[in-house]
């Protein structure tokens, strides 16, 4: 059963196309992480919140990624990270057309 | 451009199949909300966190839904709701196979 990793934190930019350019290599590397299925990249230029909605194949791979990602963000000076890992209620998600098994 | 609404809050259950049974009519009604595209239902039985990852067609419809949903949760006694609305970085999301335009 797949797991959701929900992450957000404050960042002063870049956003939009500039962000895409700066992080495209990172994005490609995320595709190679163990258990990774997909990520939607989130940003709010008004509040300087950025983050992502990830799907991992297992709770363990989500936890492992979050641990690595938190350390990577800390190296960039970002210590205050909101992160939660959830299982998925498949029956309700099926009703509301969520794109996940 | 689509928007992400990320919501979570504490709830003492029900979870899993019981939750699905209790909220299936609610789930069907969410499909009818203006601008709604999909929702993944999230739950963590260890921490009593529940919530959802929603996609709406516009920022305005995401905001309108959140306002209505917050009032509905307040009527159930749930006042402490974490909610954030984000735009999507399409270029990075395409690289990481996020299931959204």
Automatic annotation (TrEMBL), chains A, B:
Domain of life: Bacteria
The keyword Protein transport appears for this protein: no
Pfam family, one: ydhR
SUPFAM superfamilies assigned to the protein according to its UniProt record, in alphabetical order: Dimeric alpha+beta barrel
Key words, A-Z: Monooxygenase, Oxidoreductase
Transmembrane segments: none
GO MF term list: monooxygenase activity
Coiled-coil intervals, chain numbering: none
Record keyword Membrane present: no
PANTHER family named among the record's database cross-references: MONOOXYGENASE YDHR-RELATED, PTHR39169
Name assigned to this protein: Monooxygenase
